[in-house]
Amino acid sequence: MEQSLVILKPDCVSRGLVGNVISRLENAGLKIAACKVMVLGDALLAEHYSHLTHLPFFPEIVKFMSSGRVIIMVMEGENAVDRIRALLGPTDSQKAPSGTIRGDFGLDKMRNVAHASDSGDAVGKEIARFFG
Potential cystine with 80: which of 2, 7, 47, 131 (Cβ 3.0-4.6 Å)? Predict the structure, then answer.
């Protein structure tokens, strides 16, 4: 049983897409192991996106991700990291195929409905960051 962190971003919450996204994950055989609602602060976002702090669009990411509530979940299931990333589709929603979560609901590269851990190495760090 593998775990992955999933963040349903402010656009997902504000547009009322939470139920749709969770249903797709659960219908794919994934289970929620932990879940909470948060408004993310600057310090936590700077840590989470530390690999992007040097890029010119970093302040826009922080502004967007702190603009409203997010739902943070630990999902688990067989091969969870890869399966969740396949269900989400590419980061850029405009390039994501129809039938993927981002392809069906995302608006662009930033407002793309959800974040998911990109590797087994990232999972432990991300779960610790958001669930302590």
Answer: 2
The CATH number covering residue 113 comes to: 3.30.70.141
Q: Answer yes or no: is 59 within a domain.
A: no
Tell me, yes or no, if 115 is annotated catalytic: yes
Query: Is 30 within a domain?
Result: yes
Identified catalytic residue from 48, 51, 54, 115: 115
DSSP H helices in 28-105:
42-48, 58-65, 80-88, 101-105
Count how many domains the chain has.
Answer: 1
CA atoms of 24 and 53, how far apart (whole Å) = 32
Residue 53 within any structural domain of the chain: no
